[in-house]
Amino acid sequence: MTSNYAGVIIIKDKKILLIHRDNDPAIPYPNCWSVVGGMLEEGESFEEGAKREVLEEANISLKSMSFFAKITREDGSESHYYYSRVNDEDIKEMKLGNEGQEIKFFSLDEVVNLPLTKSLKKYMHTFMDKIKSLVES
């Protein structure tokens, strides 16, 4: 059984939104920062899973999002990443859901100095130019 994942790079004012994962040794990457996202539920598309996770974890209902990247892991499971630009109105109800310690927007310079999940660290490095062009445009 493979576990497919969907995550969203949420951009506002040249910063990206990250969630600080719980400091619980029972979960993968405790006390690390990650993009908002999670595992897909049974029968759920990647897009549906991404939007659901953003709503559950940050209380943001995304109006639109665009495809960013697809990663196929060694076990055959996939991670699909999307991006979405938000404004003050879009995030006026933003709050931490039932997972994580906090959610916060960071500049890319700040992100590289945070304790990141293994996958985010890897993909930030792999896709840095593409992420920079999105954030800075």
From TrEMBL:
Q: Which UniProt keywords apply?
A: Hydrolase
Which GO terms label this protein's molecular function in UniProt? hydrolase activity
Establish whether keyword Chaperone is in the entry.
no
TM region(s), chain numbering: none
* Record domain Nudix hydrolase: where: 1-129
Top-level division of the source organism's lineage = Bacteria
State what protein this is by name.
Nudix hydrolase domain-containing protein
